[in-house]
Amino acid sequence: MVVAGKGELVSKVRRIVLGTAVAGLVTGCAGAPAVKPRPSGASKPTASPSPKRDLPEGMHKLGEGVSTQDGKWALKPSALTEVAATANAKRLPRGWHTAKMTWTLTNKTGEIQPLLDVSPTVRYGAMGRAAAVFTDTGIDGIPDGSNDDAPRVKPGGSYTVTVGVAVPAEAAGDPVTITVLPSTMVGDSGDVDFFEGPFPGAAHKGVALHPRPAPETTKSLAFGQWKADQQLSVGNLRAEGSGDDGRPMYGGDLTVFNDATDASGPPYTPMKTTVRVYYGNQLKEADLVQSLVPSASETAFIAPQRAATHHFRFALPKGATPGTVTVEVTDLGTALATFEGEITSPAS
After folding, report:
1. How many C-beta atoms lie closer than 10 Å to residue 101's C-beta?
2. CA-to-CA distance for 182 and 68, rounded, in angstroms?
3. Nearest to 255 by CA among 126, 169, 121
4. Pairing between β-strand 132-134 and β-strand 121-124 as defined by DSSP bridges
5. With helix as H, strand as E and coil as C, how does the chain read?
6. How far apart are CA 263 and CA 303, in angstroms?
7. How many CB atoms are closer than 10 A to CB 236?
8. In 3D, which of 244, 255, 262, 261 has the Cα closest to residue 315?
9. Less CB within 10 Å around the terminal CB: N or C of the chain?
10. Measured CA distances, 24 to 20, 31, 41, 317, 334 (Å)
11. Is residue 316 within 8 Å of residue 284, measured between CB atoms?
């Protein structure tokens, strides 16, 4: 009888164990149910994907509720639903599509409170153009909560108001971004809230705006270019006929982009900017007829990764032709950027 050495015995045992394991994988272990074959065409199980957030951090979808930072109020705006305007509608541009939404404002304190005033700033589309907020039969709008006549809400009670929103016909389906700075007669709550949801209509692709800034070495920008910091642009300058006094009228757009990635805190980008317009080689100043934000309202904050566009208008003396137009953008009087380009006279 030949006795195997220790190393040879270990090797033999390993071969036996390995063979048994392979057999178990093929036939199934004894006493255990055999692995059932997957039905033809069945897909392999996959791990549940993590929820995808389609809005920047700190923004909310229409239909979501939030509480003010002081904890006294909860506010919840509904999604926009299509509505037909009546002849009683006010502040509604002709031909614009109309929708409505409700705001539910809940008093979370143990005391009677004057109604919270949300005064929404409403914009639509990637460029953040101003939507119209209108009133109509059954659409009363949000009462002013900053005066002594404001409605009052009992402890734990809610107050619901209906707001009308309108956009141009071609903007149906675009995203609508709403900014609120909640306040009462004793002052604002200290927080800015951003909501977004689609306007009723066919969905449009490409919601966000991602401007490509011009090189910082460029001192004077062409219309349509973007300043690197802060990100803003002037464009769409065009003739707009004549004013009541017969002077030629022109208009343009100033767009400001908030490049913050979330709404966790400053810097927000408030729309406090305005413009100075000059024409000709001698840079004669035009008469600014329509300013951008007359009150520089704090509710004009811009949501993260979103833009806001405001229209401005200016007039030239009778008989003057603009030639080269230079637009200087200012923030509370401080120059931010200069844009220039050609513009044609209005058709006679």
Report:
1. 24
2. 8
3. 126
4. unpaired
5. CCCCCHHHHHHHHHHHHHHHHHHHHHHCCCCCCCCCCCCCCCCCCCCCCCCCCCCCECEEECCCCEECCCCCEEEEECCCEECCCCCCCECCCCCCEEEEEEEEEEECCCCCEECCECCCEEEECCCCEECEEEEECCECCCCCCCCCCCCEECCCCEEEEEEEEEECHHHCCCEEEEEECCEECCEECCCCEEEEEECCCCCCCCCCCCCCECCCCCCCEECCCECCCCCEEEEEEEEEEECCCCCEEEEEEEEEECCCCECCCCCCEECCEEEEEEECCCCEECEEEECCCCCCCHHHEECCCCEEEEEEEEECCCCCCCCEEEEEEEECCEEEEEEEEECCCCCC
6. 7
7. 15
8. 244
9. N
10. 6, 11, 26, 95, 79
11. no
Tokens of 305: 């990764």
Provide the token pair at 46. 């996959």
Q: Which two tokens stand for residue 187?
A: 């002052």
Q: What is the pLDDT along the chain (348 residues), one digit of tens a residue?
A: 444 444 443 344 334 333 333 333 233 333 333 333 444 444 444 444 444 558 999 899 999 999 998 899 999 999 999 999 999 999 999 999 999 999 999 999 999 998 988 888 999 999 999 999 999 999 999 887 666 778 999 999 999 999 999 999 999 999 999 999 888 766 655 688 999 999 999 877 656 788 888 887 778 999 999 998 889 999 999 999 888 888 989 999 999 999 898 988 766 777 778 899 999 989 999 998 876 654 445 557 899 999 999 889 999 998 888 889 999 998 877 899 999 998 865 554
Tokens of 177: 């971004």
Give Rg (Cα) of the chain. Answer: 31
Cβ atoms of 100 and 137 closer than 8 Å? no
